[in-house]
Amino acid sequence: MPPTAFVPLRHILAADIGGTTSRFGHFTLAPDGTLALGRHIRLPTQAAGSFLELLDALSAAGFDLAPEQAQAAAFAVPGAVVGRTVHFANIDWSLDLADLGRAHGLERSACVNDFLAQAHGCRLLGDTAATVLPGDMDPTRIQAVIGAGTGLGHAALIPLADGTTLALPSEAGQTAAPFFGPEETAFANFLARATGEAYVRADSVLSGSGLAHLHRYLTGEDLTPAQISQQLAADSPTTAFFARFYGRATRDFALTMLPTGGMFISGGVAAKNPLLVDHPEFAREFRASPTYGAYLERIPVRLVRDENVGLYGAAAIARNLLVSQPPKG
């Protein structure tokens, strides 16, 4: 009986680039397609002057996989990706994968919208998600992902007839945020003055900086998002208002995508502060539709608190670059 051929593990470099923090992960890909996360590190994004400079900092930070040693790499970045180039949102950078290949010899690499990676990651980690609103998640139907971090991301997961899933990215966080009533309008005017924006973007409301702006408007306290997190409570006006805005954005995306298979919430704001989506104002606003309230009642919502979800999604995308190409040797 001939000996079984040894198939080596393959190595994947995954990155989830945020406006504040960038995560890098070294994944191994087993012959059966299983991904395992090994070494992973976080680097401050703004400490680097470019994406290539950030990548060059990996070795000094103790990361154990040089880019040129990876069989495939995927980089999830904030912004709309056009072909193999991207101009980052919330960071004054651009990236051309051709430059990346020349600098690090990466033959198989992909640059994708960060919430496209979040969507793939939510599918992988969905079983660990916490219930926000009840119901059965169904991956055979359309699912949607929304998440506040440095900005507000959106994506959708579309099941295809061949059994695969198409992930669709979005930059809906750049659209105008809706406000209703005199109190919300007063906050919108405050936020417009604080940001200098021609219109208040959803990114400016549902983000870490948006939480800080809201808290300062309501209390007069100028605190960082981390400081605010330490004092949030169910009876805090900051909690109630932010939960209302989050529920509204989630509802509007649900009515846009009709995700009968359920919705995932990801992103650092809710991961660090689950109270912001568990608050009754979130559920009340999510279901507040004059025409589709009963429909929204049936959509389950889950919170993925693993902040490496984008890394897992990027690794899944890199795996797709390899599955049709057998390892050499």
Notes on the structure:
The chain starts with 9 loop residues before the first strand and ends in a 7-residue tail after the last helix. The protein has a 6-stranded mixed β-sheet, with helices on both faces. The protein has a 5-stranded mixed β-sheet with strand order 3-2-1-4-8. Strand 5 (81-82) and strand 6 form a beta hairpin. The relative contact order is 0.17. The radius of gyration is 21 Å and the shape is globular. The chain has 329 residues and is α/β, with parallel strands linked by helices. The chain has 13 helices and 14 strands. Helices cover 36% and strands 23% of the residues. The protein folds into 2 domains: 10-117 and 309-322, ATPase, nucleotide binding domain (Nucleotidyltransferase, domain 5), CATH 3.30.420; 130-303, Hexokinase, domain 1 (3-Layer(aba) Sandwich).
